[in-house]
Amino acid sequence: MPKYIVVTGGVLSGLGKGVVASSIGLLLKSNGYKVTAIKIDPYLNCDAGTMNPFQHGEVFVLEDGGEVDLDLGNYERFLDINLHRDNNITTGKVYKNVIEKERRGDYLGKTVQIVPHITNEIKEWIRRVAAKSNADVCVIEIGGTVGDIESMPFLEAVRQLHLEEGHENVVFIHTTLVPIVSVVGEQKTKPTQHSVKELRAIGIDPDAIVGRCREPLKKETKEKISLFCNVPVDAVFSSPDVECIYELPLVLKKQGLPDFILRRLGLEKRDGKMDEWENFVSRLKNAKNGVSIALVGKYTALGDSYLSILEAFRHAGAELDTKVRVVWVEAEDIESEGTKILESVDAILVPGGFGSRGAEGKIAAIKFAREAKKPFLGICFGFQLAVVEYGRHVLGLRCHTTEIEPDVEHPIVTILPEQYDVDELGGTMRLGAQPIVIKEGTLAFKLYKRKEIMERHRHRYEVNPEYVDKLEKHGLVFSGVAKDKIRMEILELPSHPYFIASQFHPEFKSRPLKPAPLFYGLVKAALEEKKKMR
Ligand code: GLN
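Above: the input record for the complex with glutamine. Below: its predicted structure, written as tokens.
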């Protein structure tokens, strides 16, 4: 029977609750337990796929094609596991199931209600996912803030779960904010007190409190929280500002959080060593080299919209003893101001994207990278626009992707017949891991060192097969092709030190100790470019 660790959040969102939950998972894993994680998002969307990244940050894509909240990315990176779309529960998914059951007549004439029907559906879902994963421990993170109307049914469901599974099998960890009022510098516990009061009114007594604060919580602060929130003082933990999120597990470990949880759940304390992780964090923090890489996108105002890319830079950087400084370049600014800003960077990345805004700026950035021989990585939309750029400036075609110009003379990137009849937007792209065959002797092969790889996708448009020969005759190499031999997956330019792009998203599979090969290659090429520029 799995044990459950429920992580809730109080006061306000964006406190790094997901990172705390991921850290807890990692700490239990390092004690030899098999861990899985569930993220609950109380919004009504069935999944994150239809949401603008400006709202909730990037849409993370899983192996099975699930389009999920970015916290699932943190779980995969911290725990080094692959999750399933069912590991992300949303209000929309739960209600959809219940309404379908009602329409089928499964409820046998009963009045269908939030309690017990919605809460039962939530509990069943949690238990099903935990059982399927064979995990010893299942971390459940409840999105949003305690007190939100949206999260009520979920909190009620985990309250029932605690009752049904038994106290020794369910532990509640509440994360809150401990602000410091600048003039006096005092750590304030009142917001924490209020949010715990709210939680207890729902029937949940937190076992431990993790206070997010600029600095470590003082002894007096912990004592006050203990007294007012009804938890022992050694169950109050600090989540202070850290240089990088990967440090947090180590900070929590030092305070004894894993020991506390193990004791509380009646689990034996095992090894708990984290040497490899500690090494990784120290390499990350003390990197000797530095490179700057331009990220030419259109959601550049919100770092979270490119979260996995930023993490992939860190993983590759740690491996190469290099700190990657990201230079955010808004694609539209290139349209108005030109590519001057790209002259001083060591490499250029054009990430995935949708729609026409900024597309010409991205194409200009790719042209600059190709001609100036700057290391370049294009991802998804960046791959498609690299094909457009080559078609225009090397083949001399009036070409575009039909996503932007449906009636263009040369539709060099277009939709394949299977997408013709799709009219719904949710979950209808080509999604998830697909096999790719890599040509030997290419840069892609040098990086992956394998003939076949699996990488994750999220796109609707493709390189038009009718133009592949022409492009190759003019020097572009498609070094990775889907198993169906129709879809182009990786392109590269042998005459360039590092010019490579992929239809898939390599960033989704990058892990702290296993950097994504295309990112590793980019950072390495950036290091060489920097030496040259000196
Ligand atoms: N807009 C492009 C497509 O749908 C690329 C998508 C992406 O970059 N994720 O094919």
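Notes for the reader.
Residues 352-354, 380-381, 403, 458-461 surround glutamine (CB under 6 Å).
The CA atoms of residues 31 and 439 lie 41 Å apart.
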